[in-house]
Recover the amino acids of this structure.
């Protein structure tokens, strides 16, 4: 009779996908709305930066758009008047051409002003750090009042969904892997919580210090206690 061997190892539950979240612009953190362990929803504001400069830029850009719209309105009225006069023979071609050039310049000026407003509004929106998916906050790297750079990590969020059970396995145990890739998993804090996962990834290298290989067991439908 063939004997089946079993090995018991201790590992950790980890999210299949984790997101490192950062502001796109530099600034001082004005509010921090969540902490490690909190569950967040996609689009939820996690933290904000001070907005004094961005609000001023938006205000100035809106004033620029209003001024450009007024210039555009005046240039269009002048051009339409010159067009009508030219058709009746009451103005010269150079006057008409100058009105056309003024209208073209006013049109370009309004386009630039609107683009500058869009840039300013984007910068203001970027003072808010939002979750990119539902999940649980697993790490926080910045404090209230701290100045953070663009792309500097502020939070890590473990996205909801599939989980992995991650183990550090001695090299000898993975040298001759079993044909059956299913593994029984039990929660240490509550042994009554059990599930079965499938080996989905074996690291190609050995940890030189530990002499172990990282193995990930996929759990596609984890029990709530393993989330």
């Amino acid at each position: 009779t063939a004997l089946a061997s079993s090995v018991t190892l201790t590992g950790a539950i980890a999210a299949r996908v984790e997101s490192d979240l950062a502001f796109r612009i530099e600034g001082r953190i004005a509010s921090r709305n969540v902490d490690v362990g909190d569950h967040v929803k996609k689009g939820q504001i996690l933290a904000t930066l001070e907005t004094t400069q961005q609000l001023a830029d938006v205000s100035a850009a809106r004033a620029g758009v209003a001024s450009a719209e007024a210039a555009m309105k005046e240039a269009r009225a002048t051009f339409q008047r010159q067009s009508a006069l030219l058709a009746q023979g009451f103005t010269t071609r150079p006057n008409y051409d100058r009105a056309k050039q003024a209208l073209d310049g006013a049109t370009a000026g309004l386009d630039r002003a609107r683009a500058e407003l869009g840039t300013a509004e984007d910068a203001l929106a970027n003072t808010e750090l939002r979750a990119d998916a539902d999940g649980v906050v697993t790490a926080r790297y910045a404090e209230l009042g701290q100045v953070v750079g663009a792309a500097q990590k502020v939070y890590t969020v473990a996205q909801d969904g599939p989980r992995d059970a991650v183990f550090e396995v001695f090299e000898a145990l993975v040298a001759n892997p079993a044909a059956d890739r299913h593994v029984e998993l039990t929660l240490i804090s509550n042994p009554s919580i059990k599930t079965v996962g499938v080996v989905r990834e074996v690291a190609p290298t050995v940890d030189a210090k530990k002499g172990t290989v990282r193995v990930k067991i996929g759990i596609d439908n984890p029990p709530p206690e393993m989330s």
